[in-house]
Amino acid sequence: MRFISAIAVCLLITLLFLGGPVWSAPKTPDQLVIGITQFPSTFHPNIDSMLAKTYILALTRRPFTAFDKDWKLICMLCVRLPTIDNGLAVAERTPQGLKGIAVTYTIRPDAKWGDGKPVSTEDVVFSWKVGRHKKTGVGDMEFYRSLYKIDVKDAKTFTLHFDKLTFDYNAINGFELIPAHLDEINFTDPATYKNRTAFDTDTTNKGLYFGPYLIAKVISGSHVVLEPNPTWWGKKPAFKRIIVKVIPNTAALEANLLSGNIDMISGELGLTVDQALAFEKRQGAKFNIIYKPGLVYEHLDLNLDNPILKDIRVRRALILGIDRNAISNKLFAGRQPVAHSSVNPLDWVYAKDIQQYPYDPKQASRLLNEAGWSVRKNGIRHNKKGERLTLELMTTAGNRSRELVEQVLQSQWKGLGIDVRIRNEPARVFFGQTVTERKFTGLIMYAWISAPESVPRTTLHSAHIPTSGNNFAGQNYTGFRNAEMDKLLETIEVELDRGKRQEMWRRLQEIYAAELPVIPLYFRANPYILPKWLKGVEPTGHQNPSTLWVENWRVEGR
pTM score, two decimals? Predict the structure, then answer.
């Protein structure tokens, strides 16, 4: 009994000092409390790229198309997946003579917003107008640029006209609908729309959602309460209430699970592999733990506007100065393989024979000398002007795994004479401002999560660099500019021959490895820690989260 009491005291201390104020939802048999590590910077589905938002909104919405757990493209909001074979997709010439395609979708006839208003083509057209405006600040600018016209057939059927015929022409996973009847009034001034949208000024409005759940309550930075949507067309969800509780510190997240304040830890935004392995040794018999490898790419973005990082010799020295195999083996028990580019070996377009960078501090030192950082003072390199080789490294505060990796990087780079200063921020600030608006000066550590064979146009094309002029749209946060890469990104999309496309993908990975706009670290495996009584949670391993199928979650033996 003394031992149990001591644990309880330790847990309380952990919660108070690491996890913020102790908050506990009342226990009921038809309630599920999920723990995640980040709070969304916005609830607008098309502004900012943040997994926390995607995870929560997947409980409340359904995209037109998505990849399922078997990595197969399926319809969710649409009635039938359009293909060239079934005649719902037709190749055509654009008014400019380009080879384009017209793709016809029909919205489910029973799809309604939470306030009873039918989901309609009016919402489709409005969402397109918002996405196309240069001042809106949406992430995927290219999708809306390419979608140059919409023909409305009736209230539920519409045809999208794209100015290029791509291999994934019918995958419109990111075309998230916005309710015209609620948000059009907020779009009168597009430049300020991202601050006026109902998704952030009236987040609990039922009319913003049409999935199994509605957002009923939001306590900023703390938790989101969701309740069943009476207009949902699908299988009745098992829970009368789902609470997504945000606990930024992963140690406190584990403590909350053991104390019963949460029922499960999200695999998408929860413990890291090393933490889960340690947790499994101590508490594994009490939970179902699933390790799901997938298309999650942990990396370091470099600000290429920084004069130090513009020099390719410095970038190569940085990656040669990291023992990434040791990080994988010692911190993650080898479960998170070293990444050599952004393309995962699980993806069919992965190239095995691209340039790789082993741990080689001697070669790294030679490159730094060549780059002019040859004078050492108190162990730190300087150039001939006396300028100190200093770089700032940032990530999400409270993520113990990332903070450990930061310390390894700082230590190994210090051995090369590089002064690395760590400055972390809460995830909402980090992703909502620092990353999105390119306010970082050196390196930032975070993860991209992608779909199978996802062309990284928005993260690598020079036209997608966020600036104040485009209201910080686009996701090329490094500021990478490479004419051959731009051309590849444009041509891969429109190459229908798989063999030719594979060669283009190989060249893309060669340029990525040679130019190093990003330092690849490792591919993540996500651990899902679930209660024994929760069934039906099926991780996907890609950007569509498990919450997209929440109606299949069920309770057994609770």
Answer: 0.77
